[in-house]
Amino acid sequence: MLQIALEGAQQLEAQLNGLPDGLRLALAAKMNSLAEALYSQVVDVNLNGAVLQTRSGALRQSIRFELETRDARIEARIFSNGETPYAAILENGGKTAAHEILPDKAKALAFVMNGKQMFARRIEHPGSQIAEHSYLRSALDEQGDEIASNLRQTIVAVAGQLKDKS
């Protein structure tokens, strides 16, 4: 899960608690549009060839976007829903453990090795080193400055509206 932390978040939250509902909704709308753009970068760009090539589409279909507003808190989350077990290892890289591969629908495994058709009842896989293919963090790296700038601009605009009303 990606999270953005702001310096002075507690003070900002206290100030946001005092905002009129309309202004809080404006901030939530801005956060929603920024998070939708980030989600689009992940799903439509990064998981469509920019970072990873689509094979089955399962990873792309597992990506979710949620926006939650509760009191003064506005939280946007973009994450894999956990239905694809390889989502985390592709994002972060890592090593798979050694394991045995057994056929599940036949009496033997069939594969091509060195140009020859091979058969085996089982294979001892030594494990694999999987390189990092960050499809989530890389999207945030690309859009992070723009997101922070847009949030700052929105907060300044909201503060200006409050000042004008005082």
Can you give a write-up of this model?
- By secondary structure, the chain is an alpha+beta fold.
- It has two domains: 9-87 and 131-165, no CATH class; 94-129, no CATH class.
- Helices cover 45% and strands 22% of the residues.
- It contains five helices and eight strands.
- The chain has helices spanning 9-17, 21-45, 58-62, 87-92, 137-165, and strands spanning 63-70, 73-80, 94-95, 99-101, 109-113, 116-120, 123-125, 129-130.
- The strands form four sheets. The chain has a two-stranded antiparallel ribbon with strand order 1-2. It has a two-stranded antiparallel ribbon with strand order 3-8. It has a two-stranded antiparallel ribbon with strand order 4-7.
- A hairpin with a 2-residue loop joins strand 5 (109-113) and strand 6 (116-120).
- Helix 2 packs antiparallel against helix 5.
- The longest helix is centred in the last third of the chain and has 29 residues, at 137-165.
- The radius of gyration is 23 Å and the shape is elongated.
- The two termini are 40 Å apart.
- The model has no long low-confidence stretch (mean pLDDT 87).
